[in-house]
DNA sequence: TGTCTCATTTACATCGATGTAAATTTGATG
DNA sequence: CATCAAATTTACATCGATGTAAATGAGACA
C-alpha cells in the first residue's frame, strides 16, 4: 500500500516508498545538514510521487509552537486597520510567520477583550491594536505569552509597546495650520470620557502647538467624537458649525473623521482650504484621493509593523529571561495636500504671539 | 507535582488534580452528555485552579481538522477586500470557525497562486477571491480540499463558485445613467488583455444596456485599466479626457477606479454630475463620503460571505460524496448618490431608441 | 587487514489530546 | 438480596511528526 487508505500521505508512507526510516525523511525535509545527496534525492523523489505535505498539527504538537502570530484589531473595515494588517502580514511573512487576525469589535459597538479572544487559538504571540485603552485595562495586558501593544503605553503594563510619537505628530500638524496664519483652530476627536490613551496624547500635541504661538485654548473648539468613524466626523463638524463658533482650521484625530468633516463642510458651502484648512491623521489611502486631497500625518505603518514583529518574534524565539517591557516610538511625516496647502491667511501680525 | 515542570498545564495535570482519568476531563470539556454533575464540577474546579487551556495542536492532530478556513485575497489594503474579509470573518465566527487571511499579491505587482500559498498552513478549506482568473487557471483550482471561488465561474473548474450577478448589475448601472438622458457613456476598467472573468461580464452588462437603448457602442469610450486601483482610475480618466472624445457619463468597474476618475474630472474642471455623471461598483465605505458622494452598485458583501461560508463548511462537514460544483449568484442594489443623481439631461427624444 | 574516528541513518519514546471498547458503578426489579 | 441493564468512568492505542541516543557505514591510517 503506497499510502494510507484514505487521506493524505504521511511521513510513514514516504519513508516506506523511499525505503528509509521516518526520521531520515524528517531530516531531509527539515534541512538537517548531515544527509547524503543520494538520500536526499531518493526521499524527495518519494515526496514528489506521493504529493506529500507535512502535517502541520503534528509538527506543532511536537515542537510546541505554531509560528502563527495573532493580530487583534477593532475592525478590518476601517481603512487604517486594514492597511496596518497588510503591513503586519508582510513583515511577519518575511520572518516566516503567519498572521491570524482577530476582530475585537464583533457587535459593532462593543470592544471585547482581544486577549481573551485569542486564547482559543494556538498562537505564539499577539500584536494588539486597541481602539482605546486606559489604566483600568492593565490586568488585561498581563498575560503569559508574548504581547506587543500598539499604542500609548499603559502605566504598570508589563507588555511591550510600539507607538508613534503622537504628541509631536499632532503638534506638527497643528503648527502647520498655525504657520499658514490660521488662529481659530478646532480639533475633532477628543474622547467624551476624558483624556486617555491616544486621544489624550494627540490633544496634548494640539495644546502644545497653541502654546508655542501664545494662543489661549478655546474649549468651544474642542469637539468630541465617540468613535473615529466618518459618520462621527460628519456629526462632529455639524455640531461645530451649528454652534456658530468661528474657526478657520480643523485638525482631526484621524483621517476618517477628517473625511467626514470635509464632507460636512462641503455640504455647508465652506470652501476648503480658503475658509477652513483641514488636517487629518493616519494617511490612509483615500486621503490622497479625496476632493480636496487631505493634508495628514503619516504614521509610517511599515515601520510600526516591522518594529512590532521584530520585538514579538525576539520575545518568542529569544531566551526566557524576561527583560523589562520595551517602549518604542516610531516616526511620522506631515503630508501636505490640498486641504490645507496653498492658502495663507494674512494677519496683522502673523507669527508668534498674535 | 501539580503541573508539568515548565509550560502550560495539560489534561494530565487536570486529571491528576481532580483525581479522575484523562478521558473524563476530555469528556467534561467536550460536553459529552453522560457525565455526572458532581464529576463535571470537580473537573472544572481543577481546570480553573490550573488555568488549564486545551492544546489546540494536539486536538487538531487527533481529530484531523483545525476549524480554520483560509481566505485568499489580493491585498487587504484595497477597501473592497478588507470589507469582504470583515464579512467573511464574521460569518465564519458565527459557525465556530476562524479565518486565516492570505494575501496573494506580495510583491505589489504579481498575483501568486493562492492555493499553493495555503498549502503551508493547515486549513480545512479555502475561500479564494482572485483578482482575475481565466480559463488557463483551471488546474490551479483543481485541488483536493474544499474550495470556494468568489467570482465568475471558470469553465471546467470543479470548485464551487459564488458570484454576484455582474452582467445584470452593470447593466442596471448603465441603464441608470441612460435613464438620466446621458447618451455618451464611457466605461473604465476593461482589461487590456481581452475580456475574461469579472471584467468581461461587467463589460457585457454595459453593452447590453446600450443595446436596450439602441445605442451603438463606441470603442473610444471603452477605457482600459490594468489594475482596479485609484491611480489607474485617475490615469484612465486622464487618457479619456486627453483623447477629446465627448462623453457625459462614466461607469467604472469598481469604486476605486471611480474615485480616481472623480478626482481627475475635478482637476480638469468638469462638474459632476452636471457635465459628467459617474457611477462606481462595490459600494466601499468611502464612496458614501466622497465629494460628490458616489452612485454605485452594492454587491451585498454579507450575502456573498454567508453563502461562501455555508457552502464551504457544508463541504467540510458533509459526507464525502462529491456533489457537482455549485454556482451561486448573489444579488445587488443600485445606490444612487450625488455623482449621478438629480441632473437629468434633456434630449430631443429621451427614452428608448434615441 | 584491523582499528579508530567521524559521518549518516535508525529505533524508540514522546508531544497532548480523543476514539474504542472494556470495566465499573448505579439503580431497578423480581 | 441477587441479577441484569443502563449509565458512567477508565485503560489503552493512536493521530503524525521530531529529539535522543544508539547503531551502522565509510574512510583514514598504521
UniProtKB/TrEMBL annotation, chains A, B:
Q: Name one GO molecular function term.
A: transcription cis-regulatory region binding
Which SMART domains does this entry report, sorted A to Z?
HTH_LACI
Location of the HTH lacI-type domain:
9-63
Classify the source by domain of life. Bacteria
Q: Does the keyword Protein biosynthesis apply?
A: no
Identify one Pfam family in the record: Peripla_BP_3
Q: List, alphabetically, the PROSITE patterns matched.
A: HTH_LACI_1, HTH_LACI_2
Record's keyword terms, sorted: DNA-binding, Transcription, Transcription regulation
Which SUPFAM superfamilies does the UniProt entry name for this protein? lambda repressor-like DNA-binding domains (SSF47413), Periplasmic binding protein-like I (SSF53822)
Q: Does the keyword Aminoacyl-tRNA synthetase apply?
A: no
Question: In its UniProt entry, what is this protein called?
Answer: LacI family transcriptional regulator
Tell me the organism: Subtercola boreus
| Phylogenetic placement of the source organism | Bacteria, Bacillati, Actinomycetota, Actinomycetes, Micrococcales
